[in-house]
Amino acid sequence: MEHLDHAALLALFDRDLRAGARPDGPGARVERTGDVVRQVATGQGWNGVVWSDLDEAGAEAAIAEQIRHYTGLGLAFEWKLYGHDRPADLGRRLRAAGFTPGPQETLMIGEAGGQILDAEPPEGVRVVPVTDAPGVDLVTDVHEKAFGEDSSWLRDQLLARLAADPDTVVAVVAMAGDEPVSAARMELVPGTRFAGLWGGGTVEAWRGRGIYRALVAHRARAAAARGFRYLQVDASGQSRPILERLGFLPLTTTTPYVYTP
């Protein structure tokens, strides 16, 4: 990260991935209204606010407008709040308007060509690219076991992405023999230098053996080969120390604020 300081990297992230957001899949559209950028998606796609530049005077009205918009469409939505967003008390204002905060994560950025690249999976585990429906089923199976939640939304999203825009997504599954034990995906954002690492999950019996690290390395190599410079992760408390050892830099926090009509 020698060429960019913390503030410059955060400004680049905000410009390319938030203010300049692109739809994250087929059936989604990005709308810019006033000082807010939001995504509206069909089916099981993600709905929410990706960027805002508000002041204290206009924040309440902007929040109310987003609630009106999504409620009018019959949709629950997320306001993705970052630690440096203005006004400083935006989280409090969202709670007052009826949003529920989820777990806070750390936005971390790494260099795709950095020290990450040399991590290999443990003996007996191989990393397999996912390109078709049976592969997507393996990813979904791991996700449900690792996170303990229904992952049909992920199956639909990944199948749609692979069919419509295969150049913008890389999905992988770690196999121990015939058993899928870990899975992850990477979303490449055309026209930017960023690739996002998402959904890294390992089934409980296989944790602590370096598989998560190996899947980060595999995706880093794929990003670097495609000309992307930076890897972006919303890291949980579990992932953050691993990513810091791999040279990722914590930039700010991110918290999902969810509004359900």
From TrEMBL:
<protein>
    <recommendedName>
        <fullName>N-acetyltransferase domain-containing protein</fullName>
    </recommendedName>
</protein>
<dbReference type="InterPro" id="IPR000182">
    <property type="entry name" value="GNAT_dom"/>
</dbReference>
<dbReference type="InterPro" id="IPR016181">
    <property type="entry name" value="Acyl_CoA_acyltransferase"/>
</dbReference>
<feature type="domain" description="N-acetyltransferase">
    <location>
        <begin position="125"/>
        <end position="261"/>
    </location>
</feature>
<dbReference type="Pfam" id="PF00583">
    <property type="entry name" value="Acetyltransf_1"/>
</dbReference>
